[in-house]
Amino acid sequence: MIITLTANPSLDRTVDLGAPLNPGGVHRFTADRLQPGGKGVNVALGVQRAGLHVLAVLPAAAADPLLPLLAAEGLPHRASPMAGRVRTNLTVLSSPDVTTKLNEPGAPLSAQEASALETALLDAVSAGDDVMLSGSLAPGLPADAYVRLVRAVREKGAWVGVDTSDAPLAAIAAALASAAPDFLKPNAEELGQILGLPGEQLEADAERGELDGVRDAALALHARGVGAVLVTLGGAGGVLATDGGAWYSPSAPVEVVSTVGAGDSATAGYLIGRALGEDPPARLARALAYGTAAVGLPGTTIPRPDQVRPDPGAVRRL
User: Fold this and answer.
1) pLDDT tens for residues 247-261?
2) How far apart are the C-alpha atoms of 93 and 17, rounded to whole Å?
3) Is 73 in contact with 45 (CB distance < 8 Å)?
4) In this structure, which CATH number among 3.40.1190.20, 2.60.120.260, 2.60.40.3500, 3.90.1300.10 belongs to the domain 2-317?
5) Who's near 71: CB < 8 A, 6+ residues apart?
6) Nearest to 45 by CA among 61, 60, 58
7) Which residue from 252, 244, 212 is spatially nearest to 231, judged by alpha carbons?
8) Is 245 helix (H, G, I), strand (E, B) or coil?
9) DSSP string for 132-174
10) Which of 43, 5, 8 is CA-nearest to residue 267?
11) Is the peptide bond before 142 cis (omega within 30 degrees of 0)?
């Protein structure tokens, strides 16, 4: 089974202005969309739509409006109790092709609520499962929460991946000697955060076809104990580093509708490829195809398999 943890889930509201955003002005929506969100929820939706056995673990009160949205999606989930409400993230789409995100921090978790969330996750995990720890940490959780969970999940005999940023990512990077995950999915900015490199420069270099910096950084993380490192580079594609070396795949051209959830879709694609027994180049192709399909869909819409076109022939070894 594939299990995702969303420590700071959200209601994702996407509004389209159909015109440029004018600060201080009055706008009227041309479209308004409300979807369940949070990185782990997004990943779980992608996995579920591929027909694989999945469980999304998250904190939410019994009456929280997020839970009916998950039920409507048919997504198997386990909610640990919390007193606060799930946050709302607002994405504003405006022309020409501008996305503005306004994210709430999330309700703080008490010590008891944090312990209940950890218990809900670990009680669901069995040997042989794949566990993905995704996104920001809710206020009240320590920055090293993922470090502790990587160790706990490993002790249960499960595979574990992490996709996070800022302080939780720094904590993971500092603990690689004793708590390296089996999979890490940074974007260029997050890769720079880990290794003290300019992330914007890494992505700009990749857009020009200069991939040595990203390759070397991803391989350096792999050498420090991370089983596989998938670096997503936006429109420039992505790089995967594993025991077998490093590979690159470009992103197929697509009309960008919304970039929200594209990285999570790429993670879902990688997990699906792993579950199907694909080799690393094929997993990279599937991950990039999922991310590309996502940017062509509105709001936080996670692709279905019939919307995804992997191209293993586009993958090359670096």
Assistant:
1) 999 988 888 887 778
2) 6
3) yes
4) 3.40.1190.20
5) none
6) 58
7) 212
8) strand
9) EEESPPPTTS-TTHHHHHHHHHHHTT-EEEEE--HHHHHHHHH
10) 43
11) no
Q: What single-letter amino acid sits at 194?
A: I
pLDDT single digits (tens) 108-135? 999 999 999 999 999 999 999 999 999 9
Question: What is the identity of the amino acid at 184?
Answer: L
Inform me whether the pLDDT recorded for 157 exceeds 90: yes
| Ranges of each domain in the chain | 2-317
Q: List alpha helices for the chain, DSSP H.
A: 39-49, 66-73, 111-124, 145-155, 166-174, 176-179, 188-195, 199-207, 212-223, 262-275, 280-295
Task: At 279, list the tokens.
Answer: 């080799």
183 alpha carbon, distance to own chain's centre? 12
Tell me what pLDDT residue 96 has. 83
Averaged over 152-173, what is the pLDDT? 96
Residue 264 known to be catalytic: yes
Give the lowest-confidence range in 162-176, 193-207, 282-296. Answer: 193-207
Which residue in 123, 264, 279, 311 is the catalytic one?
264
Q: What does the alpha-carbon distance between residue 43 and residue 255 come to, in Å, rounded to a whole number?
A: 22
What backbone torsions phi and psi does residue 240 show, to the nearest 5 degrees? -120, 130
**240-246: average pLDDT:** 94
- Which amino acid, one-letter code, is at 116? A
Number of neighbours of residue 62 by Cβ within 10 angstroms: 8
Look at the pTM and tell me if it is higher than 0.85: yes
Measuring CA to CA, how many Å separate 309 from each of 174, 289, 292? 37, 6, 9
Q: Is the pLDDT of residue 205 over 90?
A: no
Q: Which of 43, 33, 37 is nearest to 60 (CA)?
A: 37
Closest to 70 (Cα-Cα) out of 48, 101, 91? 48
